[in-house]
Specification:
about 120 residues; three-stranded antiparallel beta sheet; 6 helices; Arc Repressor Mutant, subunit A; mainly alpha; elongated; about 10% strand
Length: about 120
């Protein structure tokens, strides 16, 4: 009976060392990429900016989502820090635009990673 158990263990690889497939730095980077989309307000703001052909005034962004101004400002700050949006001051208002090249780069990185899950 012991020989059969040993044979099963050898053929199924139940004790084979597992590999995470990503080192810690890579895992942190892809996690940060996913976190950009981890809140519905950020997704709404990014979608709004992506669909616009012109810069969008912050007052219009605030009116488009069901949260208060400080929350909108916080999420826009996170999107700016991620490099996905930029803003320009025009008088008392800030106008936002999506950074399309940066967004395309992020999308490509996420897609490459998701493709590894299909193997």
């Amino acid at each position: 009976m012991t020989g059969i158990i040993e044979l099963i263990a050898q053929t199924t690889g139940c004790c084979a060392p597992a590999s995470a497939g990503l080192n810690e730095t890579e895992a942190e980077a892809i996690s940060a990429d996913f976190q950009v989309f981890a809140h519905p307000v950020r997704v709404q703001l990014l979608t709004l900016l992506t669909n616009s052909t012109e810069d969008v005034c912050v007052c219009d962004l605030e009116a488009a989502v069901a949260v208060k101004q400080p929350t909108v400002s916080y999420h826009l700050k996170l999107l700016r820090e991620a490099g996905l949006v930029s803003c320009e001051r025009r008088g008392p208002w800030a106008y936002y635009r999506v950074e399309r090249e940066r967004l395309a780069s992020l999308k490509a990185r996420i897609n490459r990673h998701l493709d590894t899950w299909n193997r």
